[in-house]
Amino acid sequence: MKTSKALGVAFRSLGRNRVRTFLMMIGIVIGIAALTIIVSAGLGARKRVMERVRKFGLDCVMIWAGEREVVPSRAGAPVTTLKLEDAQALKQNIRSVTEVAPLHARQADVKYQDKSVTAMIFACTPTLEPLWDLGVVQGDFITDNDVTDLARVGVIGPTLRKELFGSTNPIGEQVRIGNVSFEIKGIMQAKGVSPRGGDMDNRIYIPLSTYMRRLANVDYIGTIRVQFKSPDNIKAAIPEMTSLLRERHQLAAGLPDDFSIATPAEITAVAQKALGTFNILLVLIAGIALIAGGVVVANIMLISVNERRREIGLRKAVGARSRDIMTQFLLEATFVTLAGGIAGVVIGIAGAQLLGAMTKVPVAISWESIVLGLVFSTLVGVVAGLQPARRASRLQPIEALRS
To answer: What is the dihedral of CA 265, 271, 277, 282, to 10 degrees?
Structure first.
């Protein structure tokens, strides 16, 4: 039997049994739609993480106080091993270093009149703003004079501004952190959610010197952001930086570092590993849905074979070969799952866009998700239809006609 004729027979059979065709298709539609949404969300998350890594700066490294962690935790007692003088020494002694941005961050209550909001305090120097590409939309950022004069000034993020001031212009207003008053001198550009899930707009930036001497009375910092002339300088500079900091911290040979250095390459590797594990889990979930859909197709096709025994016997009696019967049933299963795959891809794309619009979860529709959906649906159809097609092709005409 020609393929075109077999297709025509398969289509007519599916058209005569629309309910059965729909039941076979629905499981595939759900599975492929889930797979499309998951792949789109995974690609979107990967894109966002890679954007975050690029914003981290390919020509920068981060130094944290404490033992080596690529993504350090803020839990527990503060680590006091990193000093402001360490940042200054790095800039003075490492030739390839162009700028440093010392920083100390912690949570605290920020109060305005009768309102109080728990926010992140970023005690910093003016170099933090260009090194992190923060951006100020109103007013000014911390200046060198603010640091020199131990000025009690602050720059707030959009979330903190909204929580404390609503629609009121906060420039010139006074807020309190502990027992110290700070005058708001600027509003930061919106940055959204950090890779660790924190609100990057619920922050107040204050001079590092003011924090260390007037607010917290400490002599240590939490992190140092170091910028190099070129990304190519980083690999050679890491041993120099490590040696310099160990010497300054008087660490004897054999003792572990009391600081952590994270490079863009390490952060990228950690992000990709986390995303890879997450995506594998999601694809497995979608795979289970597809397997369930395939089982439904196989079971309904087996029921169809039993219901259509007389049809099969009659076709064999008038000359149809076993191969023709097998081809027809395989084409039916493949067409149903392929049609379900197409519908699933369309629904999945719409679902992914709706998910992105409603939850702000990043999604990225790509040809990979479409091709993957169509290929998987076709494979499910072939595999699910194989056993029913074999059973149909092995029926003997006389036995089939008697049933």
So the answer is: -140
